[in-house]
Amino acid sequence: NKMSITRGDDAEFTVTLENPHGTPYSMEQGDILTFTVKTSTTTPKVLLQKTSDDGGFKITHGVTSSMQYGDYRYDVQFTKNSGDVDTVIVPSAFVILEEVTW
To answer: Of the candidates 35, 65, 38, 33, which has an alpha carbon nearest to the alpha carbon of residue 49?
Structure first.
């Protein structure tokens, strides 16, 4: 689940959900996925957070252009319209790579 992005670049990704028995889960109205990046899992300070109601996320170059090169942590949490919460991608590496052209 490691993600890498060159600082100042754009990126898009999609989170695909499955039901407990392995079939695709179609997000329903009111379902929300939340992608969060922090320096570590122990800090309350959020550096980047995006929500999605369809599984798609876009990170624009302006968001990462001011971040320092290095290793961060991210996760993705799914909040179902019923209020149930599940972390569908556990804390994983999020790396801001060096750039030459900026």
So the answer is: 35
CA dihedral 16, 17, 18, 24 (to 10 degrees): -60
In DSSP terms, 5 is beta-bridged to 96
Residues 6+ apart with CB under 8 A from 84: none
C-beta of residue 88 within 8 angstroms of C-beta of residue 101 = no
Residue 60 to residue 36: CA distance in whole angstroms:
15
List pLDDT tens digits, range 4-31.
Answer: 999 999 999 999 999 889 999 999 999 9
Nearest to 79 by CA among 45, 20, 29: 29
Q: Phi/psi at 63 (nearest 5 deg)?
A: -70, -40
Residue 47 token pair: 């550096």
